[in-house]
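Q: I'm writing up a methods section and want to include an example of the input and output format. Could you take the sequence below and give the corresponding predicted structure tokens, formatted cleanly so I can copy it straight into the document?
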Amino acid sequence: MQDEYRTVARAGVHETEINRSRFLCALAPAATEQDAQAFVAGVRKEHADATHNCWAYVIGADAAVQKASDDGEPGGTAGVPMLQMLLRRDMRYVVAVVTRYYGGVKLGAGGLIRAYGGAVGEALDDLGTLTRRRFRLATVTVDHQRAGKLQNDLRTAGRAVRGVRYGEAVTIEVGLPEAEVDTFRSWLADATAGSAGFELGGEAYGDAQTRRTSGA
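A: Here is the clean output for your methods example:
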């Protein structure tokens, strides 16, 4: 598994105008290829009167699925530069649709490549990106008396508390970087006088940070 990947922070649309043509870039997170295709279909339906609805998506933390379409623009001038921009920004699990309303001025192949790739880049800058980092899941079991303080200590330490369940004891699910598992185990023993249970689980991705992107 990849240690981390980036995706778009939220769904949204960014519009720009080039030589009287309107370019609307719609971006959204997409967990699966089916999600990406459904998003493309939705944008195409919403802008059925547009000259072109070109698209690209990247699915998988390792970018295993990469697809793009020029939707009638000259081959390689729309979908491919959109896809290249997503990959250059290390974007994953994301879909982009650039809708073009033709304004009467031809841009030429180079102009189209810059317009479509640029529309995606500007939309990423506008909407921001989210870094998701690989975590090892761990389950901590503690008595009710210690649970409140332990949760506060975990959050104060910047630990990713992913869930809390209350039963006979309190079960807290925590996300840990693999390299910090042993350190956390020792910290937990000290913090609870050895009374807490600790069990390692599988791996998952969790949010690391949201940030505005620079025009890379």
